[in-house]
Design goal:
CATH class of one domain: Mainly Alpha
Structural class: alpha+beta
Mean pLDDT: 83
Low-confidence stretches: 1-36, 343-366
CATH superfamily of one domain: Cytochrome c-like domain
Shape: globular
Length: 621
């Protein structure tokens, strides 16, 4: 099956995913006139600005409401601040500055008047006294992501992306650490289970409350599970009650992305995505999908970059950050849960793909026309329902909260959070719906990659990461067919993705933003093992994987089916499967012959222990 689709975003191309040959590039140029399909609404970049300290990639999901129903806590990763807001008075009670580069993310609020915030880049959890604004921090892990509060045990559960669930007794005591798969994201508590989502796989790990892994959900091929939240109970949905505490819900709802067109015809304008104002039927390659337990899966093509999901028991609000620079497009999509009998009567019997311990089945429905569509200024990144059933939306730029009208479609009141502008044109281009109902970040989520290997005419190609891997590494693509950033923007963003023309100054801001994107955090490895592996690497690998980016920028045939660019090894541990075709599911698999054999480095005489040492060192880079 031909899967051109997922390489689309501007940088799915940058280091190798789009992998077009020069012949295909000429074909695009020849067809770039009258056959062009109608694009959807296109973004507008009003200014050309490049910040000295780039904003982090958008992760979303940075709002929580307190137990009183009217105190809202907003994390601001762009400014390294946490805001405490009283909604009825629209008063900013506290604006708390964290250390630069902390990148505050998910928020959990306990029963004792404290908010706990996962600091994605510092490895800490910040605890804020909501009354005084006093803040303390404690080191938890390398990359904290999701966070949940267990009221019965007065304990925090933190999902750490390096593959760990850390449980922190707030009254003091020893931390519990449970090893899991890498790339975990959100954590949710039910009456009997702990659920932990994984980002790129868009599945859910199911643990007992004692921390024993019991299984995982299955998926239907979707990926990038942006947000997992507690689904309303059936009684809440049927009786139009507000959402119960998460522990009263046994199953999650998940917003993710879905491969709606895995085999588009290559060549020409708009073959990654195009559209119209009737975006529910827009022809695009990757589509937002809402999975609700026991109900229909809903495909929402116009909701580009679905970075947050909120529910009040009767409605689900999806935040589409990718629409932030296109004023004609909504950034909030609200799905109202229908009575189950009516819902099931119109759904198919096919499964949405979520199943396993604690998960119900789904039907399928691709109609999003009945959703309420909310328009807000700025760029939305999070949403929450307060105790008065008001939908509150957070904007990253400008920094503000918007209280929506009861129909969820317009802003009723605004609460300013900070006046410091974090507008960066490169950041905006990277995260914007191009006009084809997808963004660069649709594949390069959070600046990384989607975990997939796509099948092209030329063969399989792995989505590359942008995090610390592309500065001064031109030509781009696995095949080295994109000579520079100007070439890349013209052929991918403005052509295949149906995007607007980008001038030279704007291209330069995108280049600056991508080149400055920091690598992912380093894994904590055994020092002695790393040192042994480093010596082996210097002897057998460093002639190609050299320099700051750990690549010599050359193209070589290493026995994997052709000549390919030497990839950067910066942060490689975070992006399995490895190599251009994903032939190595683990780092050790790279050394067993399936990925080039003797042509890909001299492994003669290496023992199993030495291969393990070498793998550990490479994963420490």
């Amino acid at each position: 099956m031909n899967r051109w689709w997922k390489v689309t975003p501007l940088l799915a191309v940058v280091v190798g995913v789009a992998c077009n040959t020069k012949g295909n590039e000429n074909l695009e140029e020849a067809r770039s006139g009258p056959i062009a399909p109608t694009p959807g609404p296109q973004p507008t970049f009003k200014t050309t600005a490049s910040l000295s300290t780039s904003p982090p990639p958008i992760s979303g999901g940075t709002l929580a409401v307190g137990n009183d129903g009217h105190t809202v806590v907003a994390a601001d990763p762009d400014r390294d601040r946490i805001y405490v807001v009283d909604v009825p008075s629209r008063a900013l009670k506290h604006s708390i500055k964290l250390a630069d580069g902390s990148e505050p993310g998910r928020v959990a609020i306990d029963t004792k008047g404290r908010a706990h915030v996962a600091l994605r880049s510092s490895g800490n959890v910040a605890t804020i006294d909501l009354a005084t604004g006093a803040v303390t921090e404690r080191r938890v892990c390398v990359a904290p992501r999701g966070i949940a509060y267990d009221s019965e045990l007065d304990t925090l559960h933190v999902a750490c992306a390096e593959g760990m669930l850390v449980s922190i007794p707030l009254a003091g005591g020893e931390l519990r650490r449970i090893g899991l798969d890498r790339d975990v994201r959100d954590v949710m508590l039910t009456k009997k289970k702990i659920l932990v989502s994984r980002f790129r796989q868009a599945d859910v790990l199911v643990l007992s409350r004692a921390g024993e892994l019991e299984g995982k959900s299955a998926t239907r091929g979707g990926n990038l599970g942006w947000r997992m939240v507690a689904a309303p109970t059936e009684a809440a949905a049927e009786n139009e009650q507000t959402s119960p505490p998460p522990e009263d819900s046994d199953e999650p709802a998940i917003i993710s992305q879905h491969p709606t067109n895995p085999g588009p015809t290559p060549g020409g304008v708009g073959y990654y995505g195009s559209g119209s104002t009737d975006a529910c039927s827009a022809p695009t390659i990757t589509t937002t999908r809402l999975d609700i337990p026991g109900r229909q899966s809903i495909l929402i093509p116009p909701a580009v970059l679905p970075v947050d999901l909120a529910t009040n028991g009767r409605e689900y609000a999806i935040v589409a950050a990718g629409n932030g620079h296109t004023s004609d497009l909504p950034q909030v999509f609200v799905h109202r849960v229908r009575p189950k009998a009516a819902d099931l009567s119109s759904s198919s019997s096919s499964s949405s793909g979520f199943g396993g311990p604690g998960f119900g089945g789904f039907g399928t429905n691709i109609d999003c026309t009945q959703m309420a569509k909310g328009f807000v200024p700025g760029q939305a990144v999070a949403a929450v329902f307060d105790g008065d059933d008001q939908l509150i939306v957070q904007s990253r730029e400008p920094a503000a909260l918007y209280i929506m009208t009861p129909d969820r479609q317009r802003v009723w009141k605004e609460i300013a959070l900070d006046s410091d502008s974090r507008e960066d044109t490169g950041h905006a281009i990277f995260h914007s719906n191009s006009g084809g109902f997808l963004a660069c970040a649709s594949c390069h989520a959070e600046g990384g990659e989607d975990g997939r290997t796509w099948t092209f005419i030329e063969g399989d190609r792995r989505t590359p990461s942008m995090r610390g891997t592309i500065a001064n590494t031109a030509p781009f693509h696995w095949d080295g067919t994109m000579k520079d950033m100007r070439h890349l923007v013209d052929h991918v963003f403005s052509t295949r993705m149906s995007g607007p023309k980008i001038d030279d100054a704007q291209v330069e801001t995108l280049k600056t933003y991508l080149f400055k994107m920091p690598p992912p955090p380093k894994l904590e490895q055994d020092l002695a093992t790393v040192e042994r592996g480093q010596a082996l690497f210097a002897q057998r690998c460093a002639s190609c994987h050299s320099g700051a980016a750990l690549t010599n920028n050359e193209t070589h045939d290493v026995g994997t089916g052709g000549a390919f660019q030497v990839p950067s090894l910066v942060g490689v541990a975070w992006r399995a499967p490895f190599l251009h075709n994903g032939c190595a599911k683990t780092m050790k698999d790279r050394f067993i012959g399936a990925c080039g054999g003797e042509k890909h480095g001299d492994l003669t005489g290496l023992t199993t222990a030495q291969v393990s040492d070498l793998s550990t060192y490479v994963e420490s880079l």
